């Protein structure tokens, strides 16, 4: 949608999301049944009561798109079983992959002005933290699949962790590549679970998603201030993941056409200021606060889009604290 005045192009029709504005006040903006169930002392699953055994078997493992297959052999944990912090003393910090989508071949999906700056700033911030960064721009679904397959098969034995960022349009439960939509749980983190990418088992796997998750708006609320060694152990295949979305399910994500998305601006700022001082979840709490308090949409020509708010959404399956330390 084209608008006169301060709005360059509001993208909110037909699920075309990543909400948008341009000249800001605080910041300028854009939208971007089971055997043994009754045996005493046994553990059981909280399955749907009416599900048959067959249905349940089909469901298990499908929440994230990839079913877990028991793996022969033993993975190696580079972190002591009872450690509070992940081992960040490998030879290399980690691989960071950025999938940046600005232009699309899909009807009604407009270009994402400002995402180029997001990509540049994020790459710089991650390099400052010691990451080896590889950015990709405007990949098709087929190209994206090939790149993901490549990186999922890499050997990360000498790396502290793995990081992936995706900057694109989205709706609830999907993200857009250049020529089509995909489910992130199927295509992104599902490939890097501990049973599939063994060299990343017990290591942090960090995902940052800048994309809308729906078309709902958040008008906010006014407040006033009141003043070990040889032992072995098993871990879930989805342990040690962190997935940070720019917004909560069902809501718009905002992006400034000149300064980039609110979430990426705040994330890069926090990495630059606190990357070596604080643990990652504390850093992301600062990001949440900055996005929630310091940003507000400036779309005076469209009342329903004006003075709207946003809050990022962090899902952590981390089992320890992530604290980046400088390499020698």
From TrEMBL:
Residues of the Caspase family p10 domain: 231-326
Pfam families membership: Peptidase_C14
InterPro entries (alphabetical): Caspase-like_dom_sf, Caspase_cys_AS, Pept_C14, Pept_C14_caspase, Pept_C14_p10, Pept_C14_p20, Pept_C14A
Keyword Hydrolase: yes
Sequence similarity: Belongs to the peptidase C14A family.
UniProt KW keywords: Apoptosis, Hydrolase, Protease, Thiol protease, Zymogen
Listed SMART domains: CASc
Superkingdom classification of source: Eukaryota
Residue span, Caspase family p20 domain: 92-216
The keyword Hydrolase is assigned to this record: yes
Organism encoding this protein: Melanaphis sacchari
GO molecular function: BIR domain binding; cysteine-type endopeptidase activity
Gene Ontology cellular-component annotations: cytoplasm
UniProt-recorded name of the protein: Caspase-1
Signal peptide: none
Gene Ontology BP annotations: negative regulation of Toll signaling pathway; neuron remodeling; nurse cell apoptotic process; positive regulation of neuron apoptotic process; proteolysis
